[in-house]
Design a protein that fits this description.
The complex is a heterodimer of chains A (103) and B (168). With 103 residues, chain A is mainly α. Chain A has a single domain, classed as Orthogonal Bundle (Helix Hairpins). In chain A, helix 1 packs antiparallel against helix 2 and helix 2 packs antiparallel against helix 3. Chain B has 168 residues and is mostly helical. Chain B folds into two domains: 81 residues, Four Helix Bundle (Hemerythrin (Met), subunit A); 41 residues. Chain B is built from six helices and no strands. In chain B, helix 1 packs antiparallel against helix 2 and helix 2 packs antiparallel against helix 3. The longest helix of chain B is centred in the middle third of the chain and has 26 residues. Classes of the chains: A mainly alpha (103), B mainly alpha (168). Chains A and B meet through helix 1, helix 2 and helix 3 of A and helix 1, helix 2, helix 3, helix 4 and helix 5 of B.
């Protein structure tokens, strides 16, 4: 229990969010959509961290989430720069058409 | 069923729903806008879990900065809507769907059997920011400083990657 929210609610919400993100990362073809899905999965992990931190009565979870959000910002900037460079070369960000490393 | 649990559940449903809208929508700008709503719902969840500081940076950094960066790049590149053609790789699609289902089943199984922590909460949580800041600048000081170097590296890396060829 965190206040009056049971931990099971938090975990089910986190798992559902992670699965939605995983489905997007596996089934979509646009690189930007895949990247957004990865952000959703990261947020699902954040929700679980805060839920467990609250249930254990510590703030370690919130501290970890703070670092995760900062790293997500760094990751987003580099990832989007890669997409910009990729779009200049190939005129597409469809992952099926980007096969430079494939035989 | 108390009010805060009700608010948490409503916000969580909203979050998952709009994340699903993001995954389903083919238009990339509408995908990002759905994700903004989803992240606001997540911020409400964080407030209900006594993490108001995290809720604030969720709105400011995630919804405010990262997703706006996505929108900038989408509008800069003028990314077209994903084509409705048949997927050229049906086997991979089927396998990833199957892997997703297996993962979902195992995740729900783990949560229902081992979800609760062994030790119950020692103290009731509070939403104060000051203890978090004290922790951040004492036990978390080294990762905090490493993070500033990482952000600088990401800044330089993004600049170099997105540069035009002739400018090098």
């Amino acid at each position: 229990m965190i206040g009056s929210v049971p931990l099971s609610d938090v975990l089910v919400a986190s798992a559902a969010l992670f699965l939605v993100g995983l489905a997007g990362a596996l089934l979509r073809r646009s690189a930007i959509s895949i990247f957004l899905s990865i952000e959703v999965m990261m947020n699902a992990a954040n929700l679980a961290l805060i839920g467990y931190g609250g249930a254990l009565g510590t703030r370690e979870g919130q501290l970890l989430v703070f670092f995760v959000i900062a790293i997500a910002a760094a990751e987003a900037s580099v990832g989007l720069a890669i997409f910009v460079a990729l779009f200049r070369h190939k005129e597409t960000i469809d992952v099926n058409k980007i096969n430079l490393l494939k035989w | 069923m108390t009010v805060s649990r009700l608010v948490f559940d409503a916000a969580a449903v909203l979050t998952v729903l709009f994340a699903a809208v993001m995954v389903i929508h083919r238009h990339p700008v509408k995908s990002v806008l759905a994700l903004v709503v989803s992240f606001f719902g997540l911020a409400v969840c964080y407030v209900m879990l006594f993490a108001p500081f995290i809720a604030a940076i969720q709105v400011i950094v995630y919804a405010g900065a990262i997703l706006v960066l996505f929108l900038f790049v989408l509008m800069l590149l003028n990314v077209p809507e994903e084509a409705r053609e048949r997927d050229p790789r049906p086997i991979q699609r089927f396998l990833s769907g199957a892997a997703l289902l297996v993962f979902a089943a195992s995740l729900l199984g783990i949560i229902s059997s081992h979800g609760a922590p062994a030790a119950p909460a020692a103290s009731s949580p509070s939403g104060e920011v000051a203890p978090l800041a004290r922790m951040l600048f004492s036990s978390g000081l080294l990762p905090f400083e490493a993070l500033s170097v990482l952000l600088l590296a990401a800044l330089v890396g993004a600049y170099v990657l997105a540069q035009r060829e002739e400018a090098k």
